[in-house]
Design brief:
The complex is a heterotetramer of chains A (330), B (246), C (101) and D (533). Chain B is an all-alpha fold and 246 residues long. Helix content of chain B is 69%, strand content 0%. Classes of the chains: A alpha+beta (330), B mainly alpha (246), C mainly alpha (101), D mainly alpha (533).
Chain lengths: 330, 246, 101, 533
């Protein structure tokens, strides 16, 4: 698929068309103004070239009308560019509800992907064509950046937090995956492929893949192994909040604040449990900083999610495990 | 400032001068003050340039500390409880006492500048500057006591950091900021003491009078600025919410 | 001509000094009263007042040229730009549904 | 019998190393900055050499990473930022405002020594094994992961910052307090306006990067942990603080060049600038709005979506004063008396390349489009059009324009035109392909790359070779002119301005009699309003 001299990247996603449309619009406008300036400068330089040594130019001090003209016209053109760019950006960074979810972990110097039904990949990412895919991304060490040129999407992967990226592949094919934030020695080796497949092929690939435990199942196992279950339990002896049906809810914290239970909150609660303690509980949970990897944290999150959430993603096959529906009210 | 300065609002700095000024021609009234540097026209121009220069430098100092205050702002709004908990382990008494010590030193500094302004005898000028330095040193002494305390309690960020309370991570962040901010402030105090030593020596050599006291004035600006930084550091570090709980 | 600078009476310096000490004691006192979020406001208001007193009187800005005023104000104004524009990020994180803090 | 001037008034090393004459300090800067330009250029050449082939086969990945880091650090902090201000600004500001020297000559000399000290730290870091963090020192890579001399390099940047601060402080006080009688603000040469605006950025921005790299050093050396995610620290806060200075730093580079271009365009059209006050105030507008746009470096970092939108809007705003300048220069050429000497060729090159650089900046300001081209070669191409196509073109133009004044000698105009042409062609061949590479998706800082990107990389390396020849030529003919060039008259170009009224080279205290200014610079024709509205 790589031709020898590409001049323009393949449009492999729905987003690519939106970005390219803006690109061509800006290219046209800026080419016009570059040519305008270039032609005027060259034309004036020739027309008004100095013809004898003591010639001087005509004293012109300026023109308010012209100044206003070339302030206001660029201003409006730029407002169009801004508005258009803002619209594209807003779409690029607002994942639709019900997108197929994949967890990504970046570490020096590889990309790890976990599909919700257990398939894991390294430096490859298989996605179906025609379905929104949402990546929740964390980093083990330094800042990386997940970049698929053919999809025109990119987001930094920052240690200590999750960033989200989404796209809908529109054309089957194999595309470059680059790390675009400098991350050390083998930064240029932190590359891979994104393989967009027809939905049927994708299902076949999932089925024939090296599926292990789903993240939720792996998370459940961890939940027991790390003895989380001793405190987070369903009965009256629970010394910690019950996790069933918690995801997506707003919880009341000590000190009066509230927090929405999302990926970021669960992550913080595992690594820095004292930061936001749910009211009515003692701050007794130990930190798991250094005891769990980023992947394991994501598995624990998948497990908590699988215990039920407010608005379960309307996904099937390859998405989050079917979750028991809980009423979406606090 | 006097009439001379009022003009400076409408004309550039050099309009104090008669319009045509030929080098070395008598008639430029202050051209021969021994402290006038060759590239200035007269004493007021030189004095104004120096104070303006110090003010511009203080703006850079504001931005220099500003980066730290920004970090403080971001992390405190992210961990209000952790910061409060960490702050409770600072000794409010020492902090308040040091604030008062610095305010006293600012007063004596201001009186020192005034002594030079009014051509007071060198003894008086030196007296005020030395008193200022003594209070500055007192401040650093108290700071040293506090630092020693933190080292003893292992509240210094790094591998040996130990925290007994609930918010260990936030507390370590707080103390990272505490040591950076107060440490940088202390370095400014030490530099201030160095400057004051020079100023005191110059005052002792009878270099300052009502006609020429720019160095004292400029050094005073610096000293007061360092005081202002502490005026903000004290409540922000020592008095974070909830001292009524105890 | 060089004695252009305003010489303030000693009594003024002592009055400003008194105000600064009172301010310090007030801050310590206010920290012991539970006013909720107002505690921070009161503390910062007192600190700003104290700083203004030092700048206006001890640092002679009260009698200085307009340029000095502008320079002094510019420093604090730029600090507010750093804080204000920087906070637009921190205070709006997670506002768009689906994005995380 | 040579008359006494600043060059022959005192001989020997001490007369230079202890000088307080702004003109001699400018020459000290000229020599040291040229040295750093050569070092930075050498690193650039190594980068282009490696990128000739897709596989990383010329040097190891670690070496390559150190090469682009040192290229960035040296070029940004030790060449571009001080270039025009410290050389041309130092030399010209006192002369242009009719003063004998800057307000604080000793501070001026001190700032050169600080610059050299900071440079020494950086060179020590380079020679003792290098730094591999990128010139941006992003945390947590720089604080936790990098295994190179980060602290030494960070201290180099920290120290050099004070050199910038002192230079900016000196300029601001000088412009406020040292102007000749009658030289009102609106009679100032536009170069002085642009240097004033630049100085504002120096004093308001530089301290922030100073404290930021200090915190990186503290975190790395003392394990303080200000940006450490494990303690709840935010690596993105580093980026905010870093770019609060480092984006305005781009305007530190381009504003002085704009000032130079304004002077050259007026001199070589023998015509006063079109819309003086708009050009003057647009410098201030760029300096001020430039402080509000830093977040466009964080568009894909995980900064909030709304902050991204705001920074996008503000980034578009800063383009308007730049556009105003370009339109005004174009209008100035209209009905001028245009003479295409080498300085003017550089000015034309500047206008063309800056226009492309500025307009591609709009692509990066459009936040939805930036997501794709962020951290790709599109960005590299864009900022090299601004920094090399803009700032260095301005610097070269300024050097050619004022060289007769500085050295007292004329250089070979023919060679100079050839060099200007080579630089223009070489530059475009080097950097234009990188726009295409960037949109194709080639990320920056890549040691090895997929083979389909090779053609453009080869073109780029070829261009870089031409560019290197173009930059080497002036070194040769400028040095040649010092020994063999014919003596320069006071005003070789028939230009107007205080600097052209004193001998070339100027006497030590510039003016024997303090000038009295009655009108603005560059008034060639008797003033009459020509309506074109």
């Amino acid at each position: 698929m790589f031709t020898n001299l590409p001049l323009f990247p393949v449009e492999g996603s729905v987003q690519a068309g939106q970005v390219d449309a803006l690109y061509f619009f800006m290219l046209a406008v800026t080419a016009f103004f570059s040519l305008l300036i270039g032609v005027l400068v060259v034309f004036f330089a020739i027309k008004y070239r100095r013809r004898h040594d003591d010639e001087v130019g005509v004293a012109i001090h300026g023109s308010l009308a012209l100044e206003l003209l070339w302030t206001i016209i660029p201003f409006f053109i730029m407002m169009v560019m801004f508005g258009w760019g803002a619209k594209v950006f807003y779409n690029l960074y607002r994942p639709p509800a019900g997108a197929m979810e994949i967890y990504i972990v970046g570490k020096q110097w590889m990309w790890k992907a976990q599909h919700m039904d257990g398939v894991r990949e390294i430096n490859e990412l298989h996605v179906p064509v025609g379905r929104p895919v949402k990546l929740t991304m964390g980093s083990e060490d330094v800042i990386h950046s997940f970049f698929i040129p053919a999809f025109r999407v990119k987001a930094d992967v920052v240690p200590g937090r999750y960033n989200v990226l989404w796209f809908t592949a529109s054309k089957a094919g194999t595309y470059h995956l680059f790390c675009s934030q400098y991350c050390g020695t083998k930064h240029s080796g932190m590359i891979g492929s994104v393989i967009a497949m027809d939905p049927n092929d994708f299902q076949a690939w999932l089925g024939g893949g090296n599926a292990s435990d789903t993240p939720a199942a792996a998370g459940e196992k961890l939940f027991t192994d790390l003895a989380c279950i001793t405190c987070h339990r369903d009965d009256a002896q629970a010394r910690a909040p019950q996790l069933k049906g918690l995801f997506g809810h707003t919880v009341q914290l000590q000190g009066g604040a509230t927090a929405v239970v999302d990926e970021a909150y669960i992550r913080e609660s595992i690594l820095n449990p004292q930061a936001k303690v749910v009211s009515g509980f003692q701050p007794i949970m130990p930190t798991f900083q250094g005891l769990v990897t980023e992947e394991q944290i994501l598995q624990l999150i998948a497990y908590v999610r699988s215990l039920g959430q407010v608005a379960p993603p309307a996904t099937t096959g390859g998405a989050a495990p079917a979750a028991p529906q809980t009423p979406g009210k606090d | 400032m006097s009439d001379g300065h009022a003009h400076a609002e409408h004309f550039p700095g050099r309009t104090h001068m008669p319009p045509v000024h030929v080098e070395g021609v008598p008639g430029a009234p202050h051209a021969h003050h021994p402290k006038l540097q060759h590239h200035f026209d007269n004493m007021p121009q030189q004095a104004e340039a120096s104070t303006l220069g110090m003010w511009v430098f203080l703006v850079t100092e504001i931005m220099f500390f500003g980066g730290l205050f920004m970090a403080y702002l971001i992390y405190r709004q992210a961990n209000p409880e952790g910061f409060a908990e960490a702050s409770h382990h600072l000794n409010v008494f020492w902090g308040a006492l040091n604030t008062i010590v610095l305010i006293v030193s600012s007063l004596t500094m201001a009186l020192g500048v005034r002594a030079a302004q009014t051509s007071a005898p060198p003894k008086t000028q030196v007296f005020w500057i030395v008193v200022t330095m003594m209070f500055g040193a007192t401040f650093l002494g108290i700071k040293a006591i506090e630092y020693a305390d933190k080292f003893r309690l292992n509240h210094v960020p790094g591998p040996n950091f130990h925290w007994e309370g609930q918010h260990a991570a936030a507390a370590q962040m707080f103390y990272s900021l505490y040591f950076c901010m107060t440490g940088l402030h202390a370095i400014h105090m030490i530099i201030g003491l160095g400057i004051m030593t020079v100023i005191a020596t110059m005052a002792w050599k009878r270099q300052f009078d009502a006609d020429y006291y720019t160095p004292v004035e400029v050094a005073g600006l610096y000293w007061h600025f360092v005081d202002i930084v502490w005026i903000f550091l004290f409540p922000l570090l020592y008095l974070i919410g909830g001292h009524f709980v105890e | 001509m060089a004695v252009a600078h305003h010489v303030a009476p000693k009594s003024m310096y002592y009055m400003v000094f008194g105000a600064l000490i009172v301010g310090t004691l007030l801050t310590v006192g206010a920290a012991k009263v539970d006013m909720g979020p107002l505690n921070n406001v009161v503390m910062l208001a007192i600190a700003c007042t104290k700083a203004s007193l030092v700048i206006l009187f001890f640092m002679h800005v009260r009698w200085s040229s307009r340029l000095t005023w502008v320079v002094a104000m510019a420093g604090f104004f730029w600090l507010l730009i750093l804080f204000g524009v920087g906070l637009t990020d921190y205070l709006t994180r997670g506002w768009v549904p689906g994005t995380l803090r | 019998m040579e008359t006494l001037n600043y060059l022959n008034n005192g001989h020997g090393a001490a007369s230079w190393l202890l000088t307080r004459d702004h003109k001699r300090i400018a020459l000290l800067y000229l020599v040291s900055i040229t040295a750093f330009f050569a070092i930075g250029g050498l690193f650039a050449f190594m980068i282009r050499l490696e990128l000739l082939t897709p596989a990383g086969d010329v040097m190891t990945a670690d070496t390559y990473n150190k090469m682009f880091t040192m290229h960035g650090v040296v070029m940004v902090f030790f060449f571009l930022i001080p270039s025009i201000p410290a050389v041309l600004g130092n030399f010209l500001i006192p002369i242009m405002i009719g003063a004998k020297d800057l307000a604080f000559p000793r501070v001026n000399l001190l700032s050169w020594y600080i610059y050299i000290l900071g440079g020494a730290f950086t060179l020590v870091a380079a020679l003792s094994g290098g730094v591999d963090t990128g010139w941006t020192f992003y945390t947590p890579y720089s604080t936790a992961a990098a295994n190179s001399h980060v602290i030494t390099a960070a201290m180099g940047v920290f120290i050099t910052g004070f050199s910038s601060i002192l230079t900016g402080l000196n300029f601001i006080v000088t412009v406020h307090r040292m102007r000749a009688p009658g030289l009102t603000w609106f009679r100032l040469p536009l170069f002085v306006w642009s240097m004033y605006a630049t100085s504002l950025i120096f004093i308001l921005g530089t301290p922030v990067i100073a404290i930021t790299v200090l915190l990186v050093a503290a975190e790395r050396g003392l394990h303080m942990g200000i940006f450490d995610p494990a303690l709840g620290g935010d690596p993105i806060l580093f980026q905010h603080l870093f770019w609060f200075y480092s984006h305005p730093a781009v305007y530190i580079m381009i504003l002085p060049a704009m000032g130079v271009i304004s002077e050259i365009v007026q001199a070589f059209t023998r015509k006063n600038i079109f819309g003086y006050s708009f050009v003057a105030f647009s410098s201030l507008a760029i300096a001020i709005i430039g402080f509000l746009v830093w977040g466009h470096h964080l568009f894909v970092s995980g900064q909030s979506v709304y902050a991204g939108l705001m920074f996008s809007l503000l980034s578009f705003m800063v383009a308007i004063p730049s556009a105003v300048k370009v339109f005004n220069w174009t209008a100035t050429i209209y009905k001028g008396s245009v003479q295409l000497d080498s300085s003017m060729l550089y000015a034309f090159g500047f206008i063309g390349l800056f226009t492309i650089g500025g307009l591609t900046g709009l692509f990066l300001a459009a936040v939805g489009l930036d997501v794709h081209i962020h951290d790709t070669y599109f960005v590299i191409a864009h900022f090299h059009y601004i920094m090399v196509g803009g700032a260095i073109m301005g610097y070269m133009g300024g050097l050619h324009y004022w060289w007769p004044k500085m050295s007292g000698r004329m250089y070979s105009e023919g060679w100079a035109k050839l060099a200007a042409g080579l630089i223009f062609v070489g530059f475009n061949l080097t950097f234009f392909p990188q726009f295409i590479l960037g949109y194709l998706g080639m990320p920056r800082r890549y040691h090895a790359y997929p083979p389909e990107f090779q053609v453009f990389n080869v073109a780029s390396t070829l261009g870089a070779t031409v560019l290197a020849v173009g930059y080497a030529l002036p070194l040769v003919y400028f040095i040649h002119s010092i020994f063999y060039g014919e003596k320069a008259p006071a005003d070789p170009w028939g230009a107007k301005g205080l600097e052209w009224e004193i001998p070339s080279p100027p006497p030590t205290e510039n003016f024997v009699v303090t000038p009295i200014v009655t009108h603005g610079t560059h008034q060639y024709a008797p003033s009459k309003e020509v309506g074109i509205v």
